[in-house]
Amino acid sequence: MFNSYKDQVEFLCIYTREAHPSDGWQVHENLEEDIVVTNPINDDERTEVAAACQIGLDLQMPMLIDSIDNDVEEKYISQPMRLFVIDTEGKIAYTGDRGPRGWDADSWEEAIKALIAD
Question: I need a labelling partner for 93 at 20 to 30 A (CA). Which of 9, 22, 46, 82 fits?
């Protein structure tokens, strides 16, 4: 889907706080894949972790990094993950349910199509 709309829509990934740090709620899957990350304590550390995530997952879209005070996460209630569509005026046009169970790429795509059609 990303490639279908990338000439018409700007896609961004926003990296917020680390969901599964080794000094917090470490998950078994991360241990199996040798993903061991301590919870960043400043913006530079968070940026390093985000860059490693982007490279490790081969994310092909720009990534923005939330500040260590979690301003974006708190304003958007984005944890654990969430899909949004922001219109050209900077207003939220679509808010998906909280993931991973609420992740619905189909409804997100429909919101993108509707926005492009307007």
Answer: 46
